[in-house]
Specification:
Layout: E1 8-11, H1 17-27, H2 41-51, E2 56-61, E3 64-73, E4 78-85, H3 94-108, E5 114-116, H4 123-131
Parallel strand pairs: 4-5
Antiparallel strand pairs: 1-2, 2-3, 3-4
Helix pairs in contact: 1-2
Length: about 150
């Protein structure tokens, strides 16, 4: 596998949709759960691209899409979503590079704090974010489906 420097991070485009959906099926097995329509991968990707805020990136190595990260900012807080790296490209610094890409873009927008959520059962993701300097906030996450 090429060195991490051979990885290119760029803005996601509509041409990336199929590759993103394939990657997410691999790295986010909870996506596609019919009980969680907000996690329908294709719909999520298409909605984010249609929103057009430029806060969605892909990573490619050797012509293959191997990572993604999405961010959002509402003027109050920023969020990072769907940071995922193909298993064959893990432990090379790509996840950290994607996270930093999102953090820098949010900071450039004036964002004072960034949040993210990790499934309580995903110990590997929790460890990744802790190694990247993130700390657990003492808050509960609530959600409600509205559509």
């Amino acid at each position: 596998m090429p060195a991490p420097s051979a990885t290119a991070i760029s803005s996601a485009t509509s041409a990336d949709v199929d590759a993103i959906v394939r990657l997410w099926a691999l790295v986010f097995p909870e996506y596609g759960d019919p009980r969680a329509p907000q996690r329908a991968p294709r719909a999520s990707v298409e909605r984010k691209l249609a929103f057009g805020d430029g806060l969605f990136w892909v990573a490619e190595r050797g012509g293959e899409l191997v990572g993604t990260v999405m961010a959002g900012y509402d003027g109050h807080r920023g969020w990072i979503y769907s940071l995922g790296v193909h298993p064959s490209a893990r432990r090379l610094g790509l996840g950290r590079e994607l996270a930093v890409t999102a953090e820098r873009a949010l900071a450039a927008l004036g964002c004072p704090k960034v949040n993210l959520q990790v499934f309580a059962s995903n110990a590997a993701a929790q460890a990744f974010w802790r190694r990247a300097g993130w700390v657990e906030d003492a808050v509960l996450s609530f959600g409600k489906r509205v559509g």
